[in-house]
Amino acid sequence: MIKRTYTILILIVYLSTSCSTKTGDFENARKSINVADLEGYVKELGSDRFMGRAPFTIGEKITVEYLADQLKKIGFEPAFNGSYFQDVPMVRIISEVDEAVKVKWERVMITVYPEKVR
């Protein structure tokens, strides 16, 4: 009985100290976030420097490098074998519309004469 009580007591002490550390870490992280920094990130990522950030473009490359740099600056360590980047299989599909496209909704008909849609 004493051994069991001792084990439970050690478990409670361990869990309470673990939780308080995590709470402290969470509070420190929460306090480090501010509106000015968030506005700066949004303004930067929305700027023309990133060329729209579309996949398979130079804008994507610039964007992911920027994000990796920001992660380094705030102390994140690479999670993928020493890299901030994870290989993800992707495909690119390009559609070409050669003829007019008609869209009908209730009594309204819209005809769109696109050039090539990519």
Structure, described:
- This protein has helices at 2-32, 35-45, 58-73; strands at 101-105, 108-112.
- It has 118 residues and is mainly alpha-helical.
- The longest helix has 31 residues, at 2-32.
Secondary-structure topology with pairs:
Layout: H1 2-32, H2 35-45, H3 58-73, E1 101-105, E2 108-112
Antiparallel strand pairs: 1-2
Overall form: elongated
Instruction: Give the number of helices.
Output: 3
Tally the structural domains: 2
Query: How much helix, percentage-wise, in residues?
Result: 40-55%
What percent of residues are in strands? 5-15%
Q: Tell me about the biggest sheet?
A: 2 strands, antiparallel
Helix-strand string: HHHEE
The number of distinct β-strands equals 2
Structural class: mainly alpha
If you average the pLDDT, what whole number results? 81
From the alpha carbons, calculate the radius of gyration and give it in angstroms: 26 Å
Poorly predicted tracts of residues: none
Strand order, largest beta sheet: 1-2
- From the N-terminal CA to the C-terminal CA, the straight-line distance is 73 Å
Key terms:
single chain; mainly alpha; 118 residues
Quick summary:
The protein has helices at residues 2-32, 35-45, 58-73; strands spanning 101-105, 108-112. It is 49% helix and 8% strand. By secondary structure, the protein is mostly helical.
